[in-house]
Design goal:
399 residues; 15% strand
Length: 399
């Protein structure tokens, strides 16, 4: 009898189009021979089946009457739909992304006899939630679900240690960091930013990704006022907070040296990044999740060959110091950030820094990192996805 490929059903509480980690992991497992389905919540008017991805997509969004339901009730209905669709795939593994999917994943795994994989994108109980009972819901979900998972995946060593100790996990979590899977910088993929922004040969500091409170965006702007020759680009800035930064720049008298651009397509990202002199990541020391985070932008800077200035928090600081690719600063003190930027800009042509960045760029790649993910599945099912006797997908999965 022909063996079936091992099947994996991933559960996501949002649209997969907005989660590059899920895309990378699903793509890596699919390329390795697993049959992968992602059950997610795209916008009601999105035709998920038309997405060009190497894995199946199953929408669970409530399309009719969703606006008439209270928010909490709609979440419950959609969670139930996720359970039903996930169980219907009869997959060998239910791979849940973040604590919000732990209980639906646990139910789906029990209904279908699948193994449960918990993939925590952050320290869920260390995030300062502000919406009603949501902190209690997240804590309860993790307390019930995490110890019952057959495998756990996290984004940093610090989070691995916390979850292992807190829930007495049956096996240590695997650390799969958010390393980018992006094309290398190509000048043809981006405009000449220095010309477009009027920067010329002046030092250019880059903050990449969304702008929001808790990310040191305002501290960085105030630090720039202490560096009269430098320019600052927020790449990915949009929404009300971007306008707040514009207003603050005007107050500081540095409007002509602050630049805000919206998000760019993923394939063009590193071509934009590489045109700066230093990349900045300044998560504030406001919660345990920030202290244990390894931000995506940090790895994107390295992939583009940029030295970095990061918040002096345990995980990011350890990575930067171990590779010797940047400097640390107090994310709440403009003087500290300015001093680190001054040092970084002075060393931008230093051959030692360049050599260390090249080493980091060679080692910190998704091609290497995904092997940790594949090892998790190898431990669960064996090294050959085609020889485990996995169950076929149901007709509900769309390719």
């Amino acid at each position: 009898m022909d063996s079936k490929r091992t099947s994996v059903c991933m559960l996501l509480h949002k649209d997969v189009a907005h989660d590059t980690r899920v895309q990378r992991e699903a793509g890596a497992l699919s390329a390795a021979g697993y049959e992968v389905t992602v059950v997610h919540l795209p916008p009601p008017d999105t035709a998920s089946e038309n997405e060009r991805v190497p894995f199946a997509l199953v929408p669970a969004t409530l399309r009719r009457g969703r606006q008439r339901l209270p928010h909490s009730l709609r979440l419950g209905v959609e969670a139930t739909r996720i359970v039903v669709r996930a169980a219907a795939t009869q997959s060998d593994a239910i791979h849940v992304h973040d604590a919000a999917m732990l209980l639906p994943g646990l139910v789906a795994a029990r209904r279908s006899g699948a193994k449960l994989v918990y993939d925590s994108h952050e320290l869920a109980t260390g995030v300062p939630y502000r919406r009603g009972a949501w902190p209690a819901v997240v804590a309860t979900a993790e307390r019930l679900g995490a110890p019952r998972a057959d495998a756990t995946i996290v984004v940093s060593p610090g989070i691995a240690e916390r979850l292992s100790r807190r829930y007495r996990l049956r096996r240590p979590p695997a650390v799969v960091r958010n390393l980018p899977d992006l094309p290398p910088p190509d000048a043809a993929d981006a405009p000449d930013l220095r010309r477009q922004l009027g920067v010329g040969k002046a030092p250019l500091v880059l903050h990449q990704g969304a702008v929001a409170g808790g990310r040191g965006c305002e501290t960085l702007l105030r630090a720039l006022s202490l560096l009269p020759a430098a320019h600052l680009l927020y790449l990915g800035a949009a929404g009300p907070y971007a306008e707040r930064l514009r207003a603050l720049a005007a107050e500081c008298g540095i409007t002509d040296r602050i630049h805000l651009l919206g998000p760019v397509p993923p394939r063009a990202l590193l071509a934009h990044t590489a045109q700066a002199d230093v990349g900045v990541s300044l998560l504030e020391d406001s919660c345990e999740n920030h202290r244990l985070a390894l931000p995506n932008k940090l790895f994107e800077y390295v992939a583009a060959g940029l030295p970095v200035v990061v918040a002096d928090l345990p995980e990011a600081a350890e990575l930067v110091r171990s590779y010797g690719i940047g400097w640390c600063a107090d994310p709440g003190e403009p003087q500290s950030v300015a001093a680190a930027l001054r040092t970084a800009l002075a060393a931008r042509d230093d051959s030692g820094v360049r050599n260390r960045l090249e080493r980091a760029r060679e080692e910190l790649t998704w091609a290497r990192e995904k092997q940790r993910l594949l090892s998790v599945y190898g431990d669960l099912f064996g090294s050959d996805p085609a020889g485990v006797g996995g169950r076929p997908l149901s007709v509900g999965a769309q390719r």
